[in-house]
Write a structure and sequence with these properties.
Helix content is 65%, strand content 0%. It has 49 residues and is an all-alpha fold. It is flat, with a radius of gyration of 11 Å. The relative contact order is 0.15. The mean pLDDT is 93.
Length: 49
C-alpha cells in the first residue's frame, strides 16, 4: 500500500530531524501542495526563494 502524501512528508521531516534540521509548517504545506498537484514546480520554487 503506497504512503499518502502526508505520511511521506512526515517521514522526510523525521529523517531531517535526525540530522539536526527542522522543517517549517509553511515548507510542509508547500510540499503537500506541490505533491498533490495544486501548484507547479515553478510556483513552488518561486515561493521557497
Amino acid at each position: 500500500m503506497p504512503h499518502s502524501i502526508d505520511q511521506s512528508i512526515r517521514s522526510a521531516e523525521l529523517s531531517l530531524q535526525m540530522e539536526g534540521l527542522s522543517v517549517s509548517d509553511s515548507c510542509k504545506e508547500l510540499c503537500r501542495r506541490l505533491l498533490s498537484g495544486e501548484i507547479t514546480l515553478e510556483q513552488y520554487l518561486f515561493c521557497v526563494k
